[in-house]
UniProtKB/TrEMBL annotation:
The organism of origin for this protein: Rubellicoccus peritrichatus
Pfam families: DFP
InterPro entries with a match to the protein in the record: CoaB-like_sf (IPR035929), DNA/pantothenate-metab_flavo_C (IPR007085)
Domain DNA/pantothenate metabolism flavoprotein C-terminal: 4-209
Single GO BP term: coenzyme A biosynthetic process
Name of the protein this chain belongs to: Phosphopantothenoylcysteine decarboxylase
Gene Ontology molecular function terms on file: catalytic activity
């Protein structure tokens, strides 16, 4: 099965000023492993990734972004052309309401910051999906992982969701992962713990089996 596949990976950043930001510990390793595995399937892969310290796999179309809005701006046009979306990025879901144009001096820093939500990229894209597109999300949780994953699956109108723990010793910044793949029809498959490369191969293998 030959597909055009859009994969997101890594963290995004939201800035207080040009030199300070809020983010998360996502390394991008899981998303990059998925992109490499999908490329080996012979699929055309667009990889949209936040700031990471690893190189994109050879043979994929890599698009580097920083903020949530930048990721959405790149994903929007690519999504309209793709057959499969795997939203693996750990998008920062809040940003400071006010971003200073210049560096705020230490003596002028406020210890109280007001935040606002960033765009829900997956939900926004899902609302514009074509019937034949397949959407796969990731749920990174610290507790009650599968319950929250099922809620996200329904709320964002996904076909599948990959549930994984980011509690201490979990997926973030690790070379290994343990996942459950949950489908909208009630399917439930599990894999790991194993290397993220092996987990990625397993996920792509399950997707490749879909009609």
């Amino acid at each position: 099965m030959s597909l055009r596949c859009l994969i997101t990976a890594g963290p995004t950043r939201e800035f207080f000023d040009p030199v300070r930001y809020i983010s998360n510990p996502s390394s991008g390793k899981m998303g990059f492993a998925l992109a490499e595995s999908a490329q080996r399937q012979g699929w055309v892969v667009d990889l949209v990734h936040g700031p990471v310290a690893i190189k994109p796999p050879a043979g994929v179309n890599a698009h580097a972004v920083v903020t949530c809005e930048e990721m959405y701006a790149v994903c929007g046009p690519l999504f309209s052309e793709c057959d499969l979306l795997i939203m693996c990025a750990a998008v920062c879901d809040m940003r400071p309401k006010i971003r200073a144009e210049g560096k705020v001096k230490k003596g002028d820093l406020s210890m109280t910051v007001e935040f606002e939500p960033t765009r829900d990229i997956l939900k926004t894209l899902s609302a514009a999906r074509r019937p034949e597109q397949t959407l796969v999300g990731f749920a990174a949780e610290t507790d009650d992982v599968e319950n929250y994953a099922r809620k996200k699956l329904e709320a964002k109108n996904l076909d599948w969701i990959v549930a994984n723990s980011v509690a201490k010793g979990g997926a973030f910044e690790s070379d290994t992962n343990k996942v459950s793949l949950i489908g909208r029809a009630g399917e439930h498959l599990s894999f790991g713990p194993d290397s993220k490369a092996a987990v990625a191969d397993w996920i792509i293998e399950q997707i490749a089996k879909l009609p």
